[in-house]
Amino acid sequence: MKQYEKMMINLMEGFDQHLEPEKKILLLEECGRKCIHDRREKLIQDAKLLYKNSNDLKDFLVKLSKIYESFHVTDEEIVFIWDKCYCPIIGKIPVGKISPTICHCSQGWVKELFESVTEKSVEVILEETITKGNSRCKLKVIL
């Protein structure tokens, strides 16, 4: 295991030991918000253009689900589903070695995508995470 991977494990252990849940979530969501801009700015810009050229929110969601394979829309829910962790650091850490607290970063990533596009506040719920032993990560979006 690389040094920066060990550092992230230790950092999450420190978060879990010393921070209130609200603070942990706030800090990690902010990390995810910055990450999407640093690593996937084109996705945000493409989604904004798609939203602008859609008839309404539902039309946008359907179109987005057709071009972004991890995004799914049904009559019952709007979700992101990933079969692995795509974080370039966390995704290399073996399952069970890092706290599920880290997954709030993904929560911020998804929030930032939708809030940047719709310019409205959204809620994102971590329903399943690989770090908790699930076979996938599932984040539910509530607009």
Architecture overview:
The chain has 143 residues and is an alpha+beta fold. The radius of gyration is 16 Å and the shape is elongated. Strand 1 and strand 2 form a beta hairpin. The model has no long low-confidence stretch (mean pLDDT 95). It has a four-stranded antiparallel sheet with strand order 1-2-4-3. Helix 2 packs parallel to helix 4. The chain contains four helices and four strands; from the N terminus they run αααββαββ. The chain has a single domain, classed as Trafficking protein particle complex subunit 3 (Muramoyl-pentapeptide Carboxypeptidase, domain 2, 2-Layer Sandwich).
Summarize the entry for a quick read.
By secondary structure, the protein is α+β, with helices and mostly antiparallel strands. It has helices spanning 3-18, 21-52, 57-67, 104-118, and strands at 71-73, 78-82, 123-128, 137-142.
